[in-house]
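User: Could you walk me through two proteins back to back? I'd like the raw sequence and the C-alpha cells for each, with a short line separating them so I can tell where one ends and the next begins.

Assistant: Of course. Protein one, sequence then structure:
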Amino acid sequence: VYNIVRSIPPGRVSTYGAIADYLALGSARMVGWALKNLNSMQGDVPAHRVVNSAGVLTGRNHFGSPDIMQALLESEGVKVNNNRVVHFKDQFWHPHDN
C-alpha cells in the first residue's frame, strides 16, 4: 500500500478502492487501515493524496487537524471545495497508470 501511495504524483489523487483493487486486497478499508496506522518511520508516504471514490477527503481527521489534508493537496495545486476534490475525474490517478 505504502509503495503505491508513494507513486501518486504530486497534484493528483487516487482512491482507497483503486489501490485495493490494484493490490487485490478485496477491500478499500484495508488501504484506509494501512494509512491510518502510518508511523514516523513511514513519513514519506503522501497519504493526503488518497480520497474516497467520490473525491471526498474522508481521511482528513487523521492528520492532526481536519484542515491539514486540504492544505497539503492545495499546496500541490489540487483544488478542494467543501472537503471534495474539484474536478475529481481530471485529478484521478490509477495505480495501473504507474
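----
Protein two, same layout:
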Amino acid sequence: MRFLFWGTLVILVIARIFLTKTDYPEGKKVRVTATVREEPIKYEYYQKIKLLGLNVYLPKFPEISYGDKIIVEGIVFDGKLEKAKLIRIEKRQGLLLNFRERIISFYRKSIPEPHASLLAGITLGSKGGIPEGFWQDLTKTGLAHVVVASGSNVSLVGGFLVGIFTLFFTRRLVLPLILVGIWLYAVLAGFEAPIIRAAIMGTIAFSAQQIGKLSSAWRALVLSALTMLIIKPEWVGDLGFILSFVATASLMLFQARIGKFLKAVPGILREGLSTSLAAQIGVTPILFVTFGQFNLLSPIANALVLWTVPLIMVISGLAGLFGLIFPGLARLILYLAYPLSSWFLFIVDLFSY
C-alpha cells in the first residue's frame, strides 16, 4: 500500500508536468495572457516579469505589480520573450494587495533608499523597488534571501525565533509560537505562492526538530513537495522551489549537529550562524552552478545581520500598521529601525567587495 501510494503521487506529478507543459515555438511571435504571480523586479530603465515560464522584459512604465492581469506580445527565444510589447493591463484588485502596497508606500515616503526597500523586503517580501546596485551587492554577499521571501528566509527567521522564545518559554510552548511567527510572516509578506511554499516547508522542518521525528518529517517534506507539484507543475523547474526544498532538507539534516560545534558562539549569533551554515550546505552548489559565484564569507555576513531581521520585522510591521491611521506616530516607530537597517547596509558594503 505504501509503495502504491507514493508511486501514484509520482505518476500524478509526471503526468501533470507533461500534460500542462507549454511548448513555445522558438523564434515565433506569440501573445501571452496571464496574471502576474511574482512581483516584478524593477531596474532603472525596465522591469522583469516571469510569465508562464517566460522571462519578459518591459519598459519601466507603466509599472506592473503582483496580481495584475496583462497581455504581452513578443518573439520567443531561449526562455525569453524578446521585443516584448505590453498590449493590455488590468490592474489588480483586492483588500490584501492594496493594504500591502499602502504599507510599502509609507516606508518609501518616510525613510530614504535603500533603507525603505530593505525594510519593505524584510517585512513584506517586496523586491520590486530595490535599487539595482543594492540588489547586486545583496547577491554578492549572499544576503538576497533575507530581503525577499524564500525558504532560507523563513528558516532564518524561524531559527532566531527559537533563540528568542527559548529564553522566556518552556519547550512545549516554543514550537506553537514559532509556527505562529512563521505564518504571521507569510501573511505580512503578501501570501504569494513562494511564501506559502516556504512557510509549509519551514513548518515541517521546525516541527521535526522539536518533536524529534525526522523520519516522519522526511515523509511530510516529500509529500508536501509532490502535492505542490501536482497543484503547480511549473514549479518543477523553478529555482525558488528547488532552493526551498533543499534548504529545508539541509536544515533538518545539519542544523542541530552544527549547533553543537558552535557552543562557544554567543546565543544571539549561534542560531543564525548554525541555520545559515546548515541551509547553505545544500543550496551553495545549486547557486554556484546557476550563477557561477559564491561568497565564502556569506555565512559570517549572515550571522552579523540576521539578528536584526526579527527586530526590523516587528518595528517595521507595527509602523506599517500604525501608518495607515497615525502616520506621525508611525514614523517615530519606524525611525527605531533606522540604526538596524544602517548596520545591515554597513555589512553589505563591507562584504560586497
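The first helix runs from residue 2 to 20.

Let me know if you want the two compared in more detail.
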